[in-house]
Amino acid sequence: MKPILEIENLRFSYPSYSENQQETAPLFQGLSLRMHPGEIRAIAGAPENGKTSLSHIITGLIPRYTGGSLEGTVRVAGIDVTHSEPQNLLEHAGIIFQNPDEQLLTTRVDSEIAFPLESLGLPPSEIEWKVKTELERFDLASMADRNPAQLSGGEKKRLLCAVLAAVSPPLWVLDETLDEVDPFWRKRILRFLKESGTAVLIFSSKIEAAFKTDGIRIDILSSGHLEVFRNEKPDTAIREGLILPPCQAKAVPADKTGKTGKSAGEKRHPVLMVRNLDYSYPGNSAFHLRIDQLDIRSEEICTLSGPNGCGKTTLARLLCGLSVPGKGSIRINPEGFKHPGTQQEMNSTETDDSGPGKSAFQQSPGRENARVSLLRTTTAYIFQNPDYQIFLPTIGEELSYGLKETGMQSDEIAARVEEAVRLFHLPPADTPPALMSYGTRKRLQAATYWLLRRPVAIFDEADSGLSIRDFTEILALFRDTGSAVLIITHNASFAELFSDRIVMMREGAVIEGNRGRFFYGKDSAKDSAGEIDV
Amino acid sequence: MFSTAYKPGNSLLHRSDGRIKLAMLILWTAAFLAPGSLMVQLRSYSGLLLLICFNLSLREAFKPLKSIWPLLVLVFIITPPFHQGGSLLFQLGNWYRITPEGLREAGILIIRFSGITSLFFLFFRTTTIDTFILVLRWYGLPYNAALVITIAFRYIPSLINLYKNIQDAHALRRPPLQQGRIYNPFRRFTHLFPSLVSVMIHSIKSIPSLSMALEIRGFGRHNQRTTYRPLPPFTTVTKQFFGIIIVLSLLILSYLL
Q1: Which CATH class is domain A5-239?
Q2: Pick the CATH number of A261-530 from 3.30.450.20, 3.40.50.300, 3.40.50.720, 3.40.1650.10
Q3: Chain B residues with beta carbon closer than 8 angstroms to that of A127
């Protein structure tokens, strides 16, 4: 059987932006890889190790778009991709980018699927049949006329899977595609890929349990080489932060009082109290968020999970004051704050005066802006897309921006920036964020909020693109400052091991608020597809 | 990722043929640009407002003006001194003189800007981007050029959405409220700057991403491109309707000229 992908002795260096050198250090040093039709392989690696670069080399996008020096051969279906244009590889290899927003081209879901089929020149009747088939396969038929920009992160990735399924190339390259997809769909996508007989190369910053249960070979990308992952000898995976050492992966981390889990959680004061919340998007009657009661407690790590499109991000936006509820209230409890300065400030601001069935925001229109500002400055909301929150030329400027606004002295700012760079494993403070990997940009994004010491921190799919070690370290740093941490994630193992409480959502409502139940399927059984190795 | 001004609906304009709508858009724009009296421009704009109210709503009629009102104010201030004629109505210093002629010219320019903006708004509010590409191709434009034009049109609403997202993100990084502090316009302006820088960085970064996304979906291949959702057949009725519009438009133009 002829291989579908052949990489031999690949060496690649990006061009350098420094005047003193022409190229950066080599990213790959003699990397070789061979895949046959029907083979599914996962390549796990820490951020900055070159996963995205390798995926772009395979699909002919690098060095075409970036420049750089490439040696060795890369062939897809016998075609040398380094001398071929990406559009001519359409029927041979397909890729899903890490950030789906960068890949969506049209303003309708069905047109998105049809676009590459039109490029191939297929007859309209065949395109129509394929679009219909894939819409149904990926449960997108009800969204066919919606703008892809309005879909949730997981739904966008499902749509991109539908696009590839319609084209049906013999090689799929998935760059962190399973992140943000809920466990139910993660399992279905993997099953579909296995049954389709396609060769699939999955790039991931985590070792998903499903890789092992489905018998998928896992390679670790480390120092420019590939190394086979062995469960019995996981040294490289531990070194790269892809799994945690056994001593760190056995229990919920204790809080400062030494208490863990639910018992500790009950003693903590609520910081945010949600009561009878009711919200729907203007012009979208299909979705309705209703939360009767939800408390976010100080020094607690709480996981919020549920199927894609169930309202997790909408709830997060309400909690941090980016959206205003139609009915109900989000009350700030100053007693829950651990930061003395903030507590004093909140005590002097009336926050709890809403009547039954009426929004605390709506009751007094004059106070609406103050309430919104109060929520916004109480909550650190780490967006799914880090690029929305990073906007200054260097890491140092980015980290000091919020501190300068508080009027802090420059020497204290410098000391705190230095501390953040060290704790969040960031490159030197003069590095431009634009040249950093997606995972490093996410660490920078978290560091900017960590410096602000907000009482509540919300991580919206923040583990996407981060290694398990990076993410647990970030959470620990936030909890050590006394913040209440709310994580939106689909990783069941992570949620059960590291969070004090799990809140499940479905169709805009909280369906379970206790620890130990993480489910997606109709039978509410624990779904192994959502697990990662820790 | 793109946004669009299109609002789903079932109005007469939503159901009308895109080819006719585009032809009307061009002709009506030409009519607004043609020299004419203030009353002619006003009648033309009133007709357009009625059309928007009939097909969308009264609220929608004034939506496009929200984005251009600073420009309209500027036109109203700077146009009159350049057109002198008739009795003096107002004078500020030696050079800023307002006469009826100056006000008339300012009125024409304001209606012209408002009219053209509202026309394009109405077109994109009732026509999907897919249809727009097909219409451009029907008029003989190559697919690549049609796609580039539609991307340019979609880029503006996308940038507005991006700006809102980034503004939200930045709002979350501001320091806690200080009791009794008055929010001043200068601070608001300084907060605007980083948001605009972010939008610019995103826009620049999105250029190679967009180009990559297009190429991996087969944009630029040499084979003939097909169409998933073709335009409805150009029936005899449509042809006749098209002919009537052209004749009528020519009559209007001749009246204006």
Answers
A1: alpha beta
A2: 3.40.50.300
A3: 226, 228
